[in-house]
Specification:
single chain, about 290 residues, alpha/beta, Rossmann fold, GTP Cyclohydrolase I, Chain A, domain 1, 3 domains, elongated
Length: about 290
């Protein structure tokens, strides 16, 4: 998270003002809510009206651009922002909190608004503490965005203890993630295998790595590749394989409403080039859970 202090905020507004002070506008409109305090300052500095809604040839201001949706909405006006995250290496992909904001409270307010949107009573006794619980949960189930929580892959020299291992090593387990298309869970079982070369991996790290990459908005196709990319980079084995079988609630509880599993595979090295290695692994997968 990057905190924008009031001093930095004033500095950014001054930069904006210097770039537009010689232009003529019919007034200035601040996009609720981050653009409103900026509009108040600029209206006074430029001696132009503070507008309650945009009009022809007015200036529209906001605090930042994330995806560009707001900019498109006001494409017929002169649109300016303090921070454009899309092309700024300092701010791109970062959560920005301005001096007048409270991140946790803002997030909880979003949940309250969601209750209202779907027709719930946000003041109902059973829901009073739900926004706090949801925000707390988000920090756990979306921890995959926090690179400081990424598990370190522990590896050891193959043969260092007198035993050189060059056969298949298999690990199985479960995974839980969130579909990036509808923000509902998908979950299931995984089968991981590798054939060591010069390094062997601490097997407990496989599950931890899968959990980490699962803890963000995902698609199952990307998930298998992100996991194997990390492991391949660390130990460079003779072969790597990962199969995931997942139930997607965006399919079973909405839309087509059909039960079933989505299966994704990523086979590398000898699992891709040697049919006997591939068959041995897939036989285990098909005979497992």
């Amino acid at each position: 998270m990057i905190k924008i202090t009031i001093e930095k905020w004033n500095s950014l507004i001054y930069e904006m003002y210097e770039n537009i002070k010689d232009k003529t506008y019919t007034g200035v409109y601040g996009v609720p809510r981050g653009g409103i305090p900026i509009a108040v300052v600029l209206a006074e500095k430029m001696n132009i009206p503070l507008l309650s809604s945009p009009i022809t040839n007015c200036l529209v201001v906001d605090d930042l651009i994330d995806s560009g949706t707001t900019e498109k909405k006001y494409k017929n006006y002169h649109f300016k922002v303090l921070i454009d995250k899309r092309n700024d290496t300092v701010y791109h992909g970062k959560w920005i909190e301005f001096w007048y904001e409270d991140t946790n409270q803002d997030a909880e307010d979003l949940i309250v608004r969601q209750f209202e949107y779907i027709g719930e009573d946000a003041t109902r006794l059973g829901l009073l503490e739900t926004p706090k619980r949801v925000v707390k949960m988000w920090k756990e189930i979306y921890r995959g965005y926090d690179k400081t929580q990424k598990p370190k892959i522990t590896s050891f020299d193959n043969g260092a203890d007198g035993l050189t291992y060059d056969e298949m090593v298999i690990d199985t387990g479960t995974f839980y993630s969130q579909c990036e298309h509808h923000m509902v869970p998908f979950f299931g079982d995984y089968w991981f295998a590798y054939v060591p070369d010069k390094k062997i991996v601490g097997i407990s790290k496989i599950g931890r790595l899968i959990d980490f990459h699962s803890a963000k908005l995902q698609i199952q196709e990307r998930l298998v590749k992100e996991v194997l990319d990390d492991i391949e980079r660390e130990i460079k084995p003779k072969g790597l394989a990962l199969v995931m079988k997942g139930e997607h609630l965006c399919k079973t509880m909405r839309g087509v409403k059909k039960k079933g599993k989505m299966i994704t595979t990523d086979l590398r090295g000898i699992f891709k080039s040697k049919s006997e290695a591939r068959a041995e692994f897939m036989n285990f997968v098909n005979g497992g859970r």
